[in-house]
Protein backbone atom coordinates (compact mmCIF):
# COMPACT_ATOMS: atom_id res chain seq x y z
CA UNK A 1 0.00 0.00 0.00
CA UNK A 2 1.08 3.59 0.57
CA UNK A 3 3.03 2.55 3.62
CA UNK A 4 6.16 4.62 4.38
CA UNK A 5 5.36 7.16 1.73
CA UNK A 6 4.96 9.94 4.27
CA UNK A 7 8.47 9.54 5.62
CA UNK A 8 9.94 9.82 2.14
CA UNK A 9 7.54 12.40 0.80
CA UNK A 10 8.08 14.64 3.80
CA UNK A 11 11.82 14.18 4.19
CA UNK A 12 13.16 17.69 4.80
CA UNK A 13 15.09 19.01 1.79
CA UNK A 14 16.43 22.15 3.46
CA UNK A 15 17.91 22.91 6.88
CA UNK A 16 14.90 24.97 7.84
CA UNK A 17 12.54 22.04 7.45
CA UNK A 18 14.42 19.91 9.99
CA UNK A 19 12.43 19.67 13.15
CA UNK A 20 13.76 19.72 16.68
CA UNK A 21 17.54 19.88 16.05
CA UNK A 22 18.15 23.66 16.07
CA UNK A 23 21.61 23.38 17.68
CA UNK A 24 22.88 21.22 14.84
CA UNK A 25 21.32 23.24 12.05
CA UNK A 26 22.74 26.45 13.43
CA UNK A 27 26.29 25.13 13.79
CA UNK A 28 26.30 23.58 10.32
CA UNK A 29 24.97 26.75 8.71
CA UNK A 30 27.63 28.82 10.42
CA UNK A 31 30.43 26.48 9.41
CA UNK A 32 29.29 26.55 5.78
CA UNK A 33 28.89 30.33 5.69
CA UNK A 34 32.31 30.87 7.27
CA UNK A 35 33.90 28.22 5.10
CA UNK A 36 35.14 26.36 8.15
CA UNK A 37 33.59 23.01 7.53
CA UNK A 38 35.30 19.96 9.00
CA UNK A 39 36.20 17.07 6.75
CA UNK A 40 34.64 14.37 8.95
CA UNK A 41 31.55 14.28 11.12
CA UNK A 42 29.84 11.96 13.52
CA UNK A 43 26.06 12.26 13.54
CA UNK A 44 25.02 10.46 16.69
CA UNK A 45 21.49 9.92 17.98
CA UNK A 46 18.49 7.61 18.16
CA UNK A 47 16.79 6.29 15.05
CA UNK A 48 14.52 8.45 12.96
CA UNK A 49 15.56 11.86 14.24
CA UNK A 50 17.17 13.26 11.09
CA UNK A 51 20.76 12.02 10.83
CA UNK A 52 20.61 10.76 7.25
CA UNK A 53 18.34 13.64 6.27
CA UNK A 54 20.83 16.20 7.56
CA UNK A 55 23.75 14.40 5.91
CA UNK A 56 22.04 14.61 2.52
CA UNK A 57 21.19 18.28 2.96
CA UNK A 58 24.80 18.95 3.88
CA UNK A 59 25.94 17.10 0.72
CA UNK A 60 23.65 19.32 -1.38
CA UNK A 61 24.90 22.47 0.36
CA UNK A 62 28.45 21.56 -0.68
CA UNK A 63 27.64 20.53 -4.20
CA UNK A 64 24.66 22.54 -5.46
CA UNK A 65 25.33 24.02 -8.89
CA UNK A 66 24.36 27.44 -7.54
CA UNK A 67 27.55 27.35 -5.44
CA UNK A 68 28.36 26.37 -1.86
CA UNK A 69 25.31 27.50 0.04
CA UNK A 70 23.13 26.97 3.10
CA UNK A 71 20.05 26.92 0.87
CA UNK A 72 20.57 24.35 -1.88
CA UNK A 73 18.32 24.85 -4.90
CA UNK A 74 16.96 21.28 -4.95
CA UNK A 75 16.42 21.73 -8.70
CA UNK A 76 19.81 21.45 -10.38
CA UNK A 77 20.97 18.09 -11.65
CA UNK A 78 23.36 17.53 -8.75
CA UNK A 79 20.73 18.35 -6.11
CA UNK A 80 18.21 16.05 -7.78
CA UNK A 81 20.72 13.23 -8.08
CA UNK A 82 21.51 13.50 -4.39
CA UNK A 83 17.79 13.50 -3.62
CA UNK A 84 17.20 10.32 -5.68
CA UNK A 85 20.35 8.69 -4.41
CA UNK A 86 21.85 8.37 -7.89
CA UNK A 87 24.83 10.68 -7.47
CA UNK A 88 28.22 9.10 -8.22
CA UNK A 89 29.96 11.49 -5.87
CA UNK A 90 27.65 11.36 -2.90
CA UNK A 91 27.51 7.81 -1.65
CA UNK A 92 25.54 6.27 1.15
CA UNK A 93 27.10 3.16 2.56
CA UNK A 94 25.18 0.98 4.92
CA UNK A 95 27.86 -0.23 7.30
CA UNK A 96 25.52 -2.84 8.69
CA UNK A 97 25.80 -4.80 5.44
CA UNK A 98 29.32 -3.67 4.50
CA UNK A 99 31.17 -4.19 7.72
CA UNK A 100 34.35 -5.65 6.32
CA UNK A 101 37.70 -4.11 5.63
CA UNK A 102 37.40 -4.96 1.91
CA UNK A 103 34.36 -2.77 1.49
CA UNK A 104 36.19 0.11 3.06
CA UNK A 105 39.33 -0.51 0.97
CA UNK A 106 37.20 -0.33 -2.14
CA UNK A 107 35.96 3.09 -1.10
CA UNK A 108 39.37 4.29 -0.05
CA UNK A 109 40.92 3.36 -3.37
CA UNK A 110 38.67 5.87 -5.09
CA UNK A 111 38.96 8.56 -2.45
CA UNK A 112 42.04 10.08 -4.02
CA UNK A 113 40.37 10.73 -7.38
CA UNK A 114 38.54 13.99 -7.89
CA UNK A 115 34.79 13.97 -7.90
CA UNK A 116 33.19 13.17 -11.23
CA UNK A 117 30.68 15.94 -11.36
CA UNK A 118 30.32 17.54 -7.95
CA UNK A 119 32.66 19.72 -5.89
CA UNK A 120 33.07 17.20 -3.08
CA UNK A 121 32.94 13.47 -2.69
CA UNK A 122 30.70 12.87 0.28
CA UNK A 123 30.62 9.47 1.99
CA UNK A 124 27.67 8.97 4.28
CA UNK A 125 28.36 5.87 6.34
CA UNK A 126 25.20 4.74 8.07
CA UNK A 127 25.23 2.58 11.20
CA UNK A 128 28.95 3.32 11.32
CA UNK A 129 29.40 1.53 14.64
CA UNK A 130 28.93 -1.77 12.74
CA UNK A 131 32.25 -1.39 10.91
CA UNK A 132 34.88 -3.91 11.91
CA UNK A 133 38.00 -2.84 13.71
CA UNK A 134 40.09 -3.53 10.62
CA UNK A 135 37.75 -1.37 8.58
CA UNK A 136 38.12 1.49 11.04
CA UNK A 137 41.88 1.15 10.98
CA UNK A 138 41.91 1.27 7.23
CA UNK A 139 39.92 4.48 7.40
CA UNK A 140 42.19 6.06 9.91
CA UNK A 141 44.95 7.08 7.53
CA UNK A 142 42.54 8.78 5.17
CA UNK A 143 40.95 10.60 8.08
CA UNK A 144 44.36 11.83 9.19
CA UNK A 145 45.19 13.35 5.84
CA UNK A 146 42.04 13.54 3.80
CA UNK A 147 42.15 14.87 0.25
CA UNK A 148 40.61 18.36 0.22
CA UNK A 149 37.66 17.24 -1.93
CA UNK A 150 36.41 14.52 0.48
CA UNK A 151 33.95 14.63 3.35
CA UNK A 152 32.99 11.75 5.63
CA UNK A 153 29.78 11.61 7.62
CA UNK A 154 29.44 8.74 10.09
CA UNK A 155 25.85 8.28 11.24
CA UNK A 156 25.35 6.07 14.26
CA UNK A 157 22.90 5.18 16.98
CA UNK A 158 25.75 3.92 19.15
CA UNK A 159 28.59 6.46 19.08
CA UNK A 160 30.38 4.86 22.03
CA UNK A 161 31.12 1.84 19.87
CA UNK A 162 33.22 3.91 17.50
CA UNK A 163 36.90 3.79 18.42
CA UNK A 164 38.34 6.97 19.95
CA UNK A 165 41.01 7.35 17.27
CA UNK A 166 38.17 7.87 14.81
CA UNK A 167 35.95 10.06 16.97
CA UNK A 168 38.83 12.33 17.87
CA UNK A 169 39.26 13.17 14.17
CA UNK A 170 35.62 14.03 13.64
CA UNK A 171 33.32 16.84 14.59
CA UNK A 172 30.53 15.27 16.58
CA UNK A 173 26.87 16.28 16.50
CA UNK A 174 24.41 14.78 18.92
CA UNK A 175 20.90 14.51 17.53
CA UNK A 176 18.19 14.59 20.15
CA UNK A 177 14.89 12.82 20.45
CA UNK A 178 12.39 15.26 19.05
CA UNK A 179 10.08 16.77 21.67
CA UNK A 180 6.42 15.83 21.54
CA UNK A 181 5.27 19.38 20.83
CA UNK A 182 7.50 19.51 17.77
CA UNK A 183 6.31 16.15 16.49
CA UNK A 184 2.68 17.20 16.95
CA UNK A 185 3.33 20.40 15.01
CA UNK A 186 5.09 18.50 12.25
CA UNK A 187 2.27 15.97 11.87
CA UNK A 188 -0.35 18.73 11.94
CA UNK A 189 1.39 20.55 9.07
CA UNK A 190 1.60 17.38 7.05
CA UNK A 191 -2.07 16.53 7.55
CA UNK A 192 -3.08 20.01 6.54
CA UNK A 193 -1.11 19.65 3.33
CA UNK A 194 -2.71 16.26 2.76
CA UNK A 195 -6.13 17.80 3.52
CA UNK A 196 -6.87 15.18 6.14
CA UNK A 197 -8.87 16.19 9.20
CA UNK A 198 -7.40 15.45 12.62
CA UNK A 199 -7.71 16.13 16.32
CA UNK A 200 -4.70 17.41 18.25
CA UNK A 201 -5.42 14.94 21.01
CA UNK A 202 -4.89 12.17 18.48
CA UNK A 203 -1.58 13.62 17.33
CA UNK A 204 -0.39 13.86 20.89
CA UNK A 205 -1.04 10.15 21.34
CA UNK A 206 1.04 9.40 18.25
CA UNK A 207 3.82 11.64 19.51
CA UNK A 208 3.79 9.93 22.87
CA UNK A 209 3.92 6.49 21.28
CA UNK A 210 6.76 7.35 18.93
CA UNK A 211 9.22 8.13 21.72
CA UNK A 212 10.84 11.11 20.01
CA UNK A 213 11.41 9.46 16.62
CA UNK A 214 9.94 11.47 13.74
CA UNK A 215 10.20 8.46 11.46
CA UNK A 216 8.20 6.29 13.85
CA UNK A 217 5.57 9.00 14.23
CA UNK A 218 5.24 9.21 10.44
CA UNK A 219 4.89 5.48 9.92
CA UNK A 220 2.34 5.32 12.70
CA UNK A 221 0.38 8.16 11.16
CA UNK A 222 0.58 6.49 7.77
CA UNK A 223 -0.75 3.27 9.18
CA UNK A 224 -3.65 5.06 10.83
CA UNK A 225 -4.49 7.01 7.70
CA UNK A 226 -4.61 3.86 5.59
CA UNK A 227 -6.68 2.16 8.25
CA UNK A 228 -9.38 4.76 8.73
CA UNK A 229 -11.47 6.63 6.23
CA UNK A 230 -12.44 9.77 8.07
CA UNK A 231 -10.84 12.06 10.58
CA UNK A 232 -7.69 11.13 12.48
CA UNK A 233 -9.06 11.17 15.99
CA UNK A 234 -8.53 9.24 19.17
CA UNK A 235 -10.97 6.54 18.11
CA UNK A 236 -9.24 5.98 14.79
CA UNK A 237 -5.92 5.66 16.57
CA UNK A 238 -7.09 3.29 19.23
CA UNK A 239 -8.64 1.13 16.52
CA UNK A 240 -5.62 1.16 14.27
CA UNK A 241 -3.01 0.70 16.94
CA UNK A 242 -4.99 -1.45 19.35
CA UNK A 243 -4.40 1.14 22.04
CA UNK A 244 -6.88 1.78 24.74
CA UNK A 245 -8.14 5.33 24.63
CA UNK A 246 -6.79 7.81 27.07
CA UNK A 247 -10.20 8.74 28.39
CA UNK A 248 -10.84 5.08 29.22
CA UNK A 249 -7.59 4.90 31.16
CA UNK A 250 -8.41 8.09 33.07
CA UNK A 251 -11.88 6.76 33.88
CA UNK A 252 -10.49 3.46 35.09
CA UNK A 253 -7.92 5.20 37.26
CA UNK A 254 -10.67 7.33 38.78
CA UNK A 255 -12.77 4.28 39.62
CA UNK A 256 -9.78 2.62 41.23
CA UNK A 257 -9.13 5.62 43.49
CA UNK A 258 -12.82 5.90 44.34
CA UNK A 259 -12.94 2.17 45.12
CA UNK A 260 -15.74 1.70 42.59
CA UNK A 261 -14.87 -1.91 41.89
CA UNK A 262 -18.01 -2.68 39.85
CA UNK A 263 -17.35 0.06 37.36
CA UNK A 264 -13.64 -0.64 37.21
CA UNK A 265 -14.24 -4.29 36.38
CA UNK A 266 -16.86 -3.21 33.83
CA UNK A 267 -14.23 -1.21 31.94
CA UNK A 268 -11.89 -4.19 31.95
CA UNK A 269 -14.63 -6.43 30.55
CA UNK A 270 -15.63 -3.94 27.87
CA UNK A 271 -12.02 -3.49 26.75
CA UNK A 272 -11.58 -7.24 26.59
CA UNK A 273 -14.72 -7.70 24.50
CA UNK A 274 -13.59 -4.90 22.18
CA UNK A 275 -10.47 -6.97 21.56
CA UNK A 276 -7.89 -4.83 23.32
CA UNK A 277 -4.73 -6.25 24.75
CA UNK A 278 -5.29 -5.99 28.49
CA UNK A 279 -1.59 -5.93 29.29
CA UNK A 280 -1.38 -2.69 27.29
CA UNK A 281 -4.14 -1.35 29.47
CA UNK A 282 -2.02 -1.95 32.55
CA UNK A 283 0.99 -0.43 30.86
CA UNK A 284 -1.10 2.67 30.21
CA UNK A 285 -2.21 2.73 33.84
CA UNK A 286 1.44 2.43 34.77
CA UNK A 287 2.33 5.44 32.63
CA UNK A 288 -0.53 7.43 34.11
CA UNK A 289 0.52 6.55 37.67
CA UNK A 290 4.01 7.71 36.86
CA UNK A 291 2.67 11.01 35.59
CA UNK A 292 0.51 11.55 38.66
CA UNK A 293 3.55 10.78 40.77
CA UNK A 294 5.71 13.25 38.84
CA UNK A 295 3.04 15.91 39.11
CA UNK A 296 2.69 15.18 42.80
CA UNK A 297 6.37 15.82 43.44
CA UNK A 298 6.30 18.87 41.18
CA UNK A 299 8.21 17.57 38.17
CA UNK A 300 6.22 19.61 35.67
CA UNK A 301 9.13 20.15 33.33
CA UNK A 302 9.45 16.45 32.56
CA UNK A 303 5.73 15.97 32.47
CA UNK A 304 5.14 18.73 29.92
CA UNK A 305 6.87 16.63 27.36
CA UNK A 306 4.43 13.77 27.83
CA UNK A 307 1.13 15.43 28.61
CA UNK A 308 -0.61 18.43 27.20
CA UNK A 309 -2.20 20.99 29.48
CA UNK A 310 -5.67 19.44 29.11
CA UNK A 311 -4.36 16.13 30.29
CA UNK A 312 -2.58 17.75 33.21
CA UNK A 313 -5.86 19.40 34.22
CA UNK A 314 -7.47 16.02 33.91
CA UNK A 315 -5.18 14.27 36.37
CA UNK A 316 -4.81 17.14 38.85
CA UNK A 317 -7.94 16.13 40.80
CA UNK A 318 -6.26 12.81 41.62
CA UNK A 319 -3.43 14.43 43.52
CA UNK A 320 -5.14 14.99 46.87
CA UNK A 321 -6.83 11.60 46.65
CA UNK A 322 -3.72 9.50 47.08
CA UNK A 323 -0.43 9.65 48.94
CA UNK A 324 2.97 9.34 47.30
CA UNK A 325 3.35 6.00 49.00
CA UNK A 326 -0.05 4.90 47.70
CA UNK A 327 1.10 5.80 44.20
CA UNK A 328 4.24 3.72 44.67
CA UNK A 329 2.12 0.77 45.65
CA UNK A 330 -0.22 1.28 42.69
CA UNK A 331 2.80 1.49 40.42
CA UNK A 332 4.01 -1.86 41.74
CA UNK A 333 0.62 -3.45 41.28
CA UNK A 334 0.20 -2.23 37.70
CA UNK A 335 3.72 -3.22 36.86
CA UNK A 336 3.12 -6.77 38.00
CA UNK A 337 -0.32 -6.85 36.40
CA UNK A 338 1.01 -5.84 32.98
CA UNK A 339 3.39 -8.76 33.10
CA UNK A 340 1.02 -11.30 34.59
CA UNK A 341 -1.86 -10.44 32.28
CA UNK A 342 0.46 -10.79 29.30
CA UNK A 343 1.49 -14.28 30.40
CA UNK A 344 -1.82 -15.49 31.75
CA UNK A 345 -3.92 -18.07 29.97
CA UNK A 346 -6.94 -16.29 31.38
CA UNK A 347 -6.06 -12.66 30.85
CA UNK A 348 -9.53 -11.37 31.67
CA UNK A 349 -9.62 -13.05 35.06
CA UNK A 350 -6.07 -11.98 35.87
CA UNK A 351 -6.87 -8.42 34.83
CA UNK A 352 -10.01 -8.27 36.95
CA UNK A 353 -8.19 -9.55 40.01
CA UNK A 354 -5.34 -7.11 39.43
CA UNK A 355 -7.75 -4.20 39.34
CA UNK A 356 -9.37 -5.30 42.59
CA UNK A 357 -5.93 -5.59 44.11
CA UNK A 358 -5.12 -2.08 42.92
CA UNK A 359 -8.26 -0.81 44.61
CA UNK A 360 -7.27 -2.32 47.95
CA UNK A 361 -3.68 -1.18 47.61
CA UNK A 362 -4.46 2.42 46.67
CA UNK A 363 -6.27 3.05 49.93
CA UNK A 364 -3.77 1.34 52.18
CA UNK A 365 -2.16 3.50 54.78
CA UNK A 366 1.58 3.18 55.18
CA UNK A 367 2.32 0.71 57.97
CA UNK A 368 4.14 3.32 59.95
CA UNK A 369 1.07 5.49 60.01
CA UNK A 370 -1.03 2.59 61.29
CA UNK A 371 1.47 1.93 64.06
CA UNK A 372 1.61 5.57 65.01
CA UNK A 373 -2.14 5.76 65.29
CA UNK A 374 -2.20 2.57 67.25
CA UNK A 375 0.40 3.85 69.69
CA UNK A 376 -1.33 7.18 69.99
CA UNK A 377 -4.55 5.37 70.88
CA UNK A 378 -2.77 3.23 73.44
CA UNK A 379 -1.22 6.31 75.00
CA UNK A 380 -4.51 8.12 75.22
CA UNK A 381 -6.18 5.16 76.86
CA UNK A 382 -3.51 4.85 79.51
CA UNK A 383 -3.51 8.59 80.09
CA UNK A 384 -7.25 8.58 80.57
CA UNK A 385 -6.92 5.67 82.99
CA UNK A 386 -4.51 7.66 85.05
CA UNK A 387 -6.83 10.61 84.87
CA UNK A 388 -4.30 12.85 83.22
CA UNK A 389 -4.84 15.46 80.62
CA UNK A 390 -4.71 13.69 77.23
CA UNK A 391 -2.11 15.82 75.55
CA UNK A 392 0.72 13.97 73.90
CA UNK A 393 2.94 12.65 76.67
CA UNK A 394 6.51 12.25 75.61
CA UNK A 395 7.70 8.69 75.66
CA UNK A 396 10.25 7.73 78.29
CA UNK A 397 10.23 3.96 77.85
CA UNK A 398 13.84 2.81 77.59
CA UNK A 399 13.43 1.53 74.05
CA UNK A 400 12.34 4.92 72.89
CA UNK A 401 14.67 7.03 74.94
CA UNK A 402 16.06 8.73 71.91
CA UNK A 403 13.62 10.00 69.42
CA UNK A 404 15.78 12.29 67.36
CA UNK A 405 13.70 12.19 64.26
CA UNK A 406 10.78 13.76 66.01
CA UNK A 407 11.65 16.31 68.61
CA UNK A 408 7.96 17.17 68.93
CA UNK A 409 8.45 17.82 72.57
CA UNK A 410 10.87 20.63 71.74
CA UNK A 411 8.69 22.04 68.98
CA UNK A 412 5.75 22.02 71.39
CA UNK A 413 7.78 23.97 73.91
CA UNK A 414 8.77 26.57 71.32
CA UNK A 415 5.20 26.93 70.13
CA UNK A 416 3.86 27.29 73.62
CA UNK A 417 6.43 29.97 74.42
CA UNK A 418 5.45 31.77 71.24
CA UNK A 419 1.81 31.52 72.27
CA UNK A 420 2.62 33.06 75.60
CA UNK A 421 4.05 36.08 73.85
CA UNK A 422 7.76 35.57 74.50
CA UNK A 423 8.64 35.90 70.85
CA UNK A 424 12.32 36.75 71.24
CA UNK A 425 12.95 33.81 73.54
CA UNK A 426 11.10 31.44 71.25
CA UNK A 427 13.00 32.56 68.17
CA UNK A 428 16.27 32.18 70.06
CA UNK A 429 15.27 28.65 71.01
CA UNK A 430 14.60 27.91 67.37
CA UNK A 431 18.35 28.28 66.78
CA UNK A 432 18.99 25.44 69.19
CA UNK A 433 19.54 21.84 68.23
CA UNK A 434 17.45 19.19 69.90
CA UNK A 435 19.90 16.58 71.18
CA UNK A 436 18.03 14.13 73.33
CA UNK A 437 15.24 13.43 75.72
CA UNK A 438 16.01 10.80 78.31
CA UNK A 439 14.91 10.19 81.88
CA UNK A 440 12.83 13.34 81.89
CA UNK A 441 15.78 15.44 80.87
CA UNK A 442 15.68 17.40 77.64
CA UNK A 443 19.04 18.33 76.18
CA UNK A 444 19.36 21.23 73.73
CA UNK A 445 22.56 22.45 72.12
CA UNK A 446 23.52 26.00 71.06
CA UNK A 447 26.49 27.30 69.13
CA UNK A 448 26.40 31.07 69.52
CA UNK A 449 27.81 32.56 72.73
CA UNK A 450 25.03 35.15 72.95
CA UNK A 451 22.29 32.56 72.62
CA UNK A 452 24.03 30.33 75.13
CA UNK A 453 24.26 32.95 77.83
CA UNK A 454 20.73 34.22 77.41
CA UNK A 455 19.16 30.79 77.21
CA UNK A 456 21.08 29.78 80.32
CA UNK A 457 19.70 32.76 82.20
CA UNK A 458 18.00 31.13 85.24
CA UNK A 459 14.82 33.09 84.63
CA UNK A 460 14.56 31.64 81.13
CA UNK A 461 15.34 28.09 82.27
CA UNK A 462 12.67 28.44 84.91
CA UNK A 463 10.21 29.65 82.36
CA UNK A 464 10.95 26.76 79.97
CA UNK A 465 10.50 24.28 82.81
CA UNK A 466 7.15 25.83 83.69
CA UNK A 467 6.05 25.47 80.09
CA UNK A 468 7.15 21.83 80.04
CA UNK A 469 5.26 21.12 83.23
CA UNK A 470 2.10 22.74 81.95
CA UNK A 471 2.36 20.73 78.73
CA UNK A 472 3.21 17.35 80.15
CA UNK A 473 2.06 17.46 83.75
CA UNK A 474 5.40 16.67 85.37
CA UNK A 475 8.85 18.08 86.07
CA UNK A 476 11.20 17.87 83.13
CA UNK A 477 14.77 19.11 83.42
CA UNK A 478 16.33 21.38 80.79
CA UNK A 479 20.00 21.00 79.98
CA UNK A 480 21.69 23.48 77.68
CA UNK A 481 24.79 22.20 75.98
CA UNK A 482 27.56 24.35 74.51
CA UNK A 483 28.20 23.25 70.94
CA UNK A 484 30.73 25.99 70.23
CA UNK A 485 33.57 24.64 72.38
CA UNK A 486 35.42 23.62 69.27
CA UNK A 487 34.50 22.56 65.82
CA UNK A 488 35.90 19.17 66.67
CA UNK A 489 33.51 18.66 69.55
CA UNK A 490 30.65 19.87 67.46
CA UNK A 491 31.58 17.42 64.78
CA UNK A 492 31.84 14.58 67.23
CA UNK A 493 28.49 15.53 68.71
CA UNK A 494 26.82 15.42 65.33
CA UNK A 495 28.57 12.14 64.67
CA UNK A 496 27.23 10.85 67.95
CA UNK A 497 23.77 12.05 67.00
CA UNK A 498 23.98 10.35 63.64
CA UNK A 499 25.14 7.14 65.26
CA UNK A 500 22.37 7.13 67.83
CA UNK A 501 19.91 8.02 65.15
CA UNK A 502 20.80 5.12 62.91
CA UNK A 503 20.81 2.75 65.88
CA UNK A 504 17.40 3.89 66.96
CA UNK A 505 16.09 3.74 63.40
CA UNK A 506 17.23 0.19 63.07
CA UNK A 507 15.81 -0.67 66.46
CA UNK A 508 12.49 0.96 65.66
CA UNK A 509 12.06 -0.90 62.42
CA UNK A 510 12.99 -4.16 64.12
CA UNK A 511 10.48 -3.42 66.85
CA UNK A 512 7.92 -2.58 64.24
CA UNK A 513 8.31 -5.86 62.44
CA UNK A 514 7.76 -7.65 65.77
CA UNK A 515 4.48 -5.85 66.26
CA UNK A 516 1.61 -8.35 66.06
CA UNK A 517 -0.58 -5.79 64.28
CA UNK A 518 1.97 -5.46 61.50
CA UNK A 519 2.43 -9.18 61.22
CA UNK A 520 -1.29 -9.63 60.78
CA UNK A 521 -1.42 -6.83 58.24
CA UNK A 522 1.39 -8.41 56.26
CA UNK A 523 -0.49 -11.69 56.21
CA UNK A 524 -3.83 -10.18 55.23
CA UNK A 525 -2.47 -8.13 52.38
CA UNK A 526 0.25 -10.54 51.39
CA UNK A 527 2.39 -7.44 51.68
CA UNK A 528 6.03 -6.57 51.66
CA UNK A 529 7.36 -3.78 53.83
CA UNK A 530 8.80 -1.30 51.38
CA UNK A 531 10.09 1.34 53.72
CA UNK A 532 9.21 1.61 57.34
CA UNK A 533 10.80 4.96 57.84
CA UNK A 534 9.18 7.16 55.19
CA UNK A 535 7.24 9.74 57.16
CA UNK A 536 5.66 11.58 54.28
N1 LIG B 1 14.35 16.06 12.57
C1 LIG B 1 13.47 15.71 11.61
N2 LIG B 1 12.66 16.64 11.05
C2 LIG B 1 11.78 16.29 10.11
N3 LIG B 1 11.61 15.03 9.65
C3 LIG B 1 12.38 14.07 10.17
C4 LIG B 1 13.35 14.36 11.18
N4 LIG B 1 13.96 13.22 11.51
C5 LIG B 1 13.43 12.26 10.77
N5 LIG B 1 12.47 12.75 9.96
C6 LIG B 1 11.63 11.96 9.04
O1 LIG B 1 11.96 10.59 9.22
C7 LIG B 1 12.54 10.05 8.04
C8 LIG B 1 13.80 9.30 8.39
O2 LIG B 1 14.74 10.18 8.92
P1 LIG B 1 16.31 9.92 8.89
O3 LIG B 1 16.98 11.21 8.69
O4 LIG B 1 16.62 8.83 7.93
O5 LIG B 1 16.54 9.40 10.35
P2 LIG B 1 17.87 8.80 10.98
O6 LIG B 1 18.92 8.81 9.94
O7 LIG B 1 18.17 9.68 12.14
O8 LIG B 1 17.48 7.43 11.43
C9 LIG B 1 12.82 11.22 7.15
O9 LIG B 1 12.56 10.88 5.82
C10 LIG B 1 11.85 12.30 7.60
O10 LIG B 1 10.62 12.17 6.94
MG1 LIG C 1 19.41 7.02 8.85
ZN1 LIG D 1 21.15 22.58 -6.52
Layout of helices and strands, plus pairs?
Layout: H1 5-9, H2 22-33, E1 40-44, H3 51-63, H4 77-84, E2 90-94, H5 101-111, E3 121-126, H6 133-144, E4 150-156, H7 164-167, E5 171-174, H8 180-193, H9 200-210, H10 214-227, H11 234-241, H12 246-257, H13 261-273, H14 278-296, H15 300-303, H16 309-315, H17 324-343, H18 347-362, H19 367-385, H20 408-419, H21 423-430, E6 433-438, E7 441-446, H22 449-456, H23 458-472, E8 477-482, H24 487-514, H25 516-525
Parallel strand pairs: 1-4, 1-5, 2-3, 3-4, 7-8
Antiparallel strand pairs: 6-7
Helix pairs in contact: 3-4, 5-6, 8-9, 9-10, 9-11, 10-11, 12-13, 12-14, 13-18, 14-17, 17-18, 20-21, 20-23
The structure holds adenosine-5'-diphosphate, magnesium ion (MG) and zinc ion.
Adenosine-5'-diphosphate is lined by residues 7-8, 10-12, 18-21, 47-53, 155, 178, 214-215, 218.
Describe the protein in words:
It is a single chain. The chain is α/β, with parallel strands linked by helices and 536 residues long. It folds into three domains: 21-174, Rossmann fold; 244-362, Zinc Finger, Delta Prime, domain 3; 394-517, 2-Layer Sandwich (GMP Synthetase, Chain A, domain 3), CATH 3.30.300.180. Helices cover 57% and strands 8% of the residues. The chain has 25 helices and eight strands. The protein has helices at 5-9, 22-33, 51-63, 77-84, 101-111, 133-144, 164-167, 180-193, 200-210, 214-227, 234-241, 246-257, 261-273, 278-296, 300-303, 309-315, 324-343, 347-362, 367-385, 408-419, 423-430, 449-456, 458-472, 487-514, 516-525; strands at 40-44, 90-94, 121-126, 150-156, 171-174, 433-438, 441-446, 477-482. It has a five-stranded parallel β-sheet with strand order 2-3-4-1-5, covered by helices on one side. It is elongated. The two termini are 56 Å apart. 29% of the residues are buried. Bound molecules: adenosine-5'-diphosphate (ADP), magnesium ion and zinc ion. Magnesium ion binds at residues 51-52, 126, 155.
Amino acid sequence: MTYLVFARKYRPQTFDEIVGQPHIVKTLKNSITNNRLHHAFIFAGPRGVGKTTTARILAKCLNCETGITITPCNKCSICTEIINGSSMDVQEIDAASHTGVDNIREILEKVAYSPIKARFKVYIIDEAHMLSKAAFNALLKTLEEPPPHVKFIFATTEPNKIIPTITSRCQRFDFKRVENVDIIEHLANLLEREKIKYSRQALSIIARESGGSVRDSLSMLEHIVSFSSGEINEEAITKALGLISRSTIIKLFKHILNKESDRAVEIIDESYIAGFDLSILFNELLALTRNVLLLKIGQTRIINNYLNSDEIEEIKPFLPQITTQGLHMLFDTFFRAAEEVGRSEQPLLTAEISVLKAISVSSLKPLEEIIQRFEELERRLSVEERGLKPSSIPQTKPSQEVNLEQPEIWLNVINEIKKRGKISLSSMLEDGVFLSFENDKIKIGFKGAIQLSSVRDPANIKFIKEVLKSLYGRDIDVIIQDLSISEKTAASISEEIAKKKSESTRKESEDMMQNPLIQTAIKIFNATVVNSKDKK
